[in-house]
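Example 3.2
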Amino acid sequence: MWRKSSPVRGWPVLPRVALFFVACVAMLIVATPLARAIPHVQPAISIGLATSSGTLLLTYLFVRWDGVTAQDVGIAPDRRSVIRLVAGFTIGLVLVAINTLAMWSTGHVTWVRAPAPSHSDAAMTLVAFVLLASREELAFHGYPLRRLECSFGLGVAQAVVALVFALEHVAGGAGWVNAFLGSGIGALLFGMAAIASRGLAMPIGLHAAWNVGDWIRGGKDSSGLWRPIVEQEYASSVGMAGMGSYIAVFLMTTFGLWMWHRTFGRSGDAIG
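Structure, written as tokens:
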């Protein structure tokens, strides 16, 4: 039998979190080619299902090792989890809409309808984004964020997790600017959502909704419902408007969640 030990605190948490990150990356590296080999299943779905399930199991192992509970790292669902998921998804779509409006306001980009995917393809894309978002939230804003916060405080925890999150995207092929100003800023929002709501349902909803909304407007590798047509000579200004508004709305939303946490967190009230 595995005997429960006293909860680990302080500096010993740091190497355990580092080991958790390494294990998550190794799992992703191993699972990706295996999942893609599964016939008749969209690769993103098989990869998302395999890695999110594996990361959840890994989280439980580290939780037992640290002598804490699933609630301590935000992976235990409760009766409000569905509400938080829907709230996060709604907020995420609003952020996409604001970002899209900022680019449209430059007057140099329009969106035209793309060849419509089938209903089944669209549904599978939605499922894939939810699964992939679940894997990333489990890998970054569950065990690592909450254990670092417990030992070093919110600021250090957010900074470390955002840095590692950005570096994983660099390793995945993203440019340095997009990784740090895009994924890194996003990590701050998703992390604050996890802290403020004391769980992963809201950040999973936020994360998935941003990716779904970006896919709908043609921002992903595969065509969504629309595709952008940018005037070539103004591509730089449209890109700056998109990145600037992204940073602004994500940081403002992060600040709002932080204010909620600061005001109500100590009284035991979580969002949702």
